Amino acid sequence: MRHGKHRFLLGCTKEHREALMANLTSALLRHGKIETTLAKAKALRPFVEKIITMAKKAYLAEDSAQKLHYRRLAIARIKDEDAVAVLFNDRASEFVKRNGGYSRIYKLMPRIGDAAKMAIIELVLGDDVGYAKSKKRNTAKARKSTPSKKSKQQQKIVTDAVETEITTIPDQGVPESAITEQG
Fold first, then answer.
1. CA–CA separation, 99 and 124 (whole Å)
2. CA-CA distance, 54 to 92, in Å (whole number)?
3. How far apart are CA 57 and CA 51, in angstroms?
């Protein structure tokens, strides 16, 4: 079955798509950041991260034959020896401590001519921590099921006030004969 095989087709043939990814990867490795359409940036991310992982494995490998093997695999995919040399010689050491997430995509305003969604894809520095995640907000359902401390205190104050009012209500001057007649 071919379920889930329809990813990043970009409206072109397989050969054109491979050449496009190779060219975009080459430009990204040379410049560190490129501007392209959002669809191409999303398609480029897994492609370039696999190439960077190869460079990282080559950097960590002790056997020179293994290093050469990874370099040749990268050249076969990118087809630009200069860009591969930049990655394997200069940038591979930056990514050794990262466990993935070597690229980042920023969305931009639509392009004026055809209103295509644009994006910037850039390589993340090796020591970049990113941004801190915000605390999870309580949903309305969670707030209803578990009342907060403040609402519990308010409920206690209200119930205490009601109990004191009930116990301190003075006689309102109702004659005793009216009480005994009803009872």
1. 12
2. 9
3. 10
34-64 pLDDT per residue, tens: 999 999 999 999 999 999 999 999 999 999 9
Asked whether residue 82 carries a pLDDT value surpassing 60, the answer given is yes
14-123 topology per CATH: 50s Ribosomal Protein L17; Chain: A, (3.90.1030)
Q: Is the pLDDT of residue 144 over 70?
A: no
Residue 95 pLDDT: 92
Burial of 108 (0-12, 13-18, 19+ CB in 10 A): middle
How far apart are alpha carbons 55 and 100 in whole angstroms? 12
CA dist 103 and 141 (Å) reads 37
Q: Show Cβ contacts of residue 122 under 8 Å, excluding neighbours closer than 6 positions.
A: 28, 32, 33, 34, 103, 104, 106
**CA 14, CA 129: separation in Å to the nearest integer?**
36
Q: Inform me whether the pLDDT recorded for 74 exceeds 80.
A: yes
Helices (H), 86-174: 140-145, 149-167
